[in-house]
Amino acid sequence: MIFRKIVVTAAIACLVLAFTACGDDDSSSFVEPEKETSSSIAESSSERSGGDPSSPSSSSSSVSSSSTNSSSSAKSSSSTDAKSSSSVTSSSSGTSTGSSAGNSSSSKAEDLSCTPEEEGQTFEFTLTGKKYICKNGSLIEIASSSSAVPTSSYFDMTNQFNEKVSYGEFTDPRDGQKYQTVEIYDKVYDVTYTIFAENLNFGKMVPGGTVLGGAAKYCYDDDPWYCDNGWGGLYTWSAAMNIPSICDSVKLGSEKCPYSFPMGKAGKMEKSEIVQQGICPEGWHIMNDNEWANLQEKSGNSVAYYMGSKVAGFGNNDYGLSILPSGYWLRYENNTSDFELIKKEAFFWLPQQSSDYPEKAHRVSISSREIDRLYKDFKSKRAHSVRCVMNY
Q1: What separation in angstroms does the CA of 76 have from each of 92, 118, 120, 176?
Q2: pTM of this prediction?
Q3: Selection from 322, 318, 382, 388 nearest residue 177 by Cα
């Protein structure tokens, strides 16, 4: 009996000693993991511009760099930033740039910065396939054509044009800007129109609401990216017609607006149409009602489907006119103003004022459902896009 008590007591003592030893081992071997700092997420501007790959912030991740030729649909230079732990491909228009990958295991646009030299460049993360653009020192995600995004995001312009359509090219001698052009045949009047496949983007950008004159334009959201990347400028009626702003409130041919627009015919056309150069280059004119009517005749009310660019999901662009839903600028009754309806509708001025209201003029609106050529807008309270047609 005494022997059994001794054995039990000894066993309990061993258990106590073993438990204490185990606890000591755990506390001595446990090390709290070091937290990742923000310095491991952002990389210096020298690294992005091809700095020393052996610098401490460089990662062992493999990065490949390739050069690509700029396409006609890309208005700004394009490069890919190595801001992810995954392998990232870097490219730029006509040049090859090296970059090093950061140490972060995740990448968020709001966590990343970019340098003034990278302003306007685009970047793609190969891990997620997402694209970003450098704007005011930050990377902003570029909207895909199928996603519903706020207007503050930029759009991927890769599919602006139809690669199966044979485009021409015109260089505006006034500023050297290049435009894709497309030919549209009018079987009714047996004439072929050569039309800008892009919205006109001529003039100096001024804030929305500023009185336009002397070759000036608005850019959507007061952001030059829209003007420079296919969406083009927005113009009040007088600015589009290239006449004084007083003509927005009085009738053409009046004492205050002593102007008239020339008339012309094309092919077998029976009636004359307005052929007003407006703000278009020499040898071109503002697309008139008959030319828009031809597009409507070719496609019914499905102009957006046949003529609309695939950017922002606006159409199938079979005919290659690449119409973008560029929205418009408008002034409210309380004299404030704003930009609206981008990604939803396209609006274009016609060189035709209202016969009843001198402060209004005709415009074309195109949505995914219909085309409207009959509506009249206030000349000075709206700013719309412009398409140019070569004189024939």
Answers
A1: 10, 11, 7, 15
A2: 0.64
A3: 388
Q: Which two tokens stand for residue 27?
A: 């506390």
pLDDT tens, residue by residue, 208-234: 888 787 789 999 999 999 999 999 999
- Residue 265: both structure tokens together: 């015919």
**Per-position b or e across 27-55, b if 16+ CB within 10 A of its CB:** eeeeeeeeeeeeeebbbeeebbeebeeee
pLDDT in tens, 249-282: 999 999 999 999 999 877 777 778 999 999 999 9
Distances 373 to 191, 196, 249 between C-alpha atoms, Å = 21, 19, 21
Give just the sign of the alpha carbon dihedral 388, 317, 219, 384. Answer: positive
Report the candidate in 275, 251, 280 with the shortest Cα–Cα distance to residue 264. Answer: 275
Residue 247's closest CA among 342, 361, 108? 361
Residue 142 and residue 153 in contact, taking contact as beta carbons nearer than 8 Å: yes
SS3 of 89-149: the string is EECEECECCCCCCCCCCCCCHHHCECCHHHCCCEEECCCCCCEEEEECCEEEEEECCCCCC
Identity at 296, one-letter amino acid code:
Q
Adjacent-strand bridge partners of 388: 286
- CB environment 241-259: b (16+ within 10 A), e (fewer): bbbebebbebebeeeebee
